[in-house]
Task: structure prediction
Amino acid sequence: MSGLDRRALLVLSALAVAAWSCARDDGEYADLVATGGAVLTVDADFTVAEALAVREGRVLAVGPDEEIRAFVGPDTQVIDLAGRTVVPGLADNHLHSAGGGDGVDLSRVRTMDELLGAITGRAEASGPGELVTTNSDWHEGQLREQRLPLRRDLDRAAPGNPVVVVRGGHEYILNSQALERWEITTDTPVPDGGRITRYPDGELNGELVDTAKRLVTLPERPPRDLETRIQDQVEQYRTLHGVGLTSIRHPGGSLEQFRLLEEMRRRGLLTMRVTFLMRMRARTAEEVDAALAAWDLEPQAGDEWLRLGGIKLGVDGGFEGGLMREPYEEPWGQGGTFHGLRTMPQDTYNEVVLRLAERGWRVATHAVGDLAIDQVLEGYEKADEVVPLAGKRWAIEHGFIPQPDQFPTMNRLGLLVAGQHHLYLAGPSLEKYWGRERADWTTPMRAYLDAGVMVSAGTDAPVVPYPPLWVLHHFVTRETISGGVFGEDQRVSVEEGLRLITHAPAFLNFEEDLKGTLEPGKLADFVVLSDDPREVPADEIQVEMTVVGGETVFQR
Result:
């Protein structure tokens, strides 16, 4: 610790001691004290302390061991860090769920044979003619073969069953029986904003992308009662606490989902701090008004546990449909004609965005490719002409392929980018779709930071695995699961990486005064790590303890 850092911490500790001296005279002390380690505060100077004290759910003081031990009383919980490292509670700026839902679990398969074998096993257990679906928590980038299972593969795996492989949030892959079930043929019109792809011989390969998924209606999950749904959510948060998450931003859910979280908040069952974005599918200003009236919600309503963070829109596809200025690599480029998928026309988008701005709602828009970012910037600029956006922290979700000519507009409008580590999983696939140069540039955190664009990090789970330390590892090293290093020049420092998953998501949600750093007065959300990420690669570090509001929610 530098002399300047130590003096700053001593000043903070002295102020805290003065503020609490009367209470201590009356026999009141800190509720929790952690000493004997390295406390990475992630404050503006990245101050490192030895200990911290917590009182009534907030950080009371940080500083040297001898100063913080003064807060220990007869009922104080004392954590001996024994040289371990404390960081602020970790956050995910774009997390749908901790798993890919019902169906055959493909999250751990690593070869095509393993994937097809899992589908065969489910088909045999289900019986002939029964529909077989998979979860979405996987990507072909995790497979040794680096390719999708297509119709003929699935026909071999389950010749007697219709099969729908759910791949992420943007794609289904069907076998022959499933194509027949939903009457999809080579003559089926391709919906706007979608793709129905084929083998080189012209036959359908079973792949339905983005809006083409609407040709298939999967069975809905059987209704669950309120108590079951609450318990499922409690268990999911327990899983996420186990990897160090204390805050998540849920990017686009239903009114029913939000009401469930409200009920959990009312009962005191929330252990995760949640920022919730509503999903809107309106296509006109009138439809926007109707949706808002039906919701009957106030923008930014909520508290430190549950808060509305705006409305989620989308203008392009995902890995296989990001809208690009330049065409895809061949054969995906289809002779230089395929630039990706536009899922909302520009005029429609402009109208919806303007009405949301007029109604006081923040907007966050899914945009993968550079042409999609162009569309978002046009819509935001038109809204800005009527309702100035500066200071409102509107966002671009994902922002895979920005261009330098877009950075000035982002900064002028005060936009934030919520980026994720998709490349960690999908690097080889993105290289096939877009070529090595664009794959190396995917989610260029270094470029965003150097341009002064406020950017945060997350996972997009279940599309990509959810441990936040994997996010840190990827952006610090630019390593991928199966393709080596992509875009080495876009690496960030460990300190910058920690900010991306602590302070930056808090700033994205107008909560930087509440959390994201370990400073006196802020929420006592922190994580005890087995090692210091400045010294040990993040993917080798374990989460030992997770604390939310001074309460331990996970302990190894």
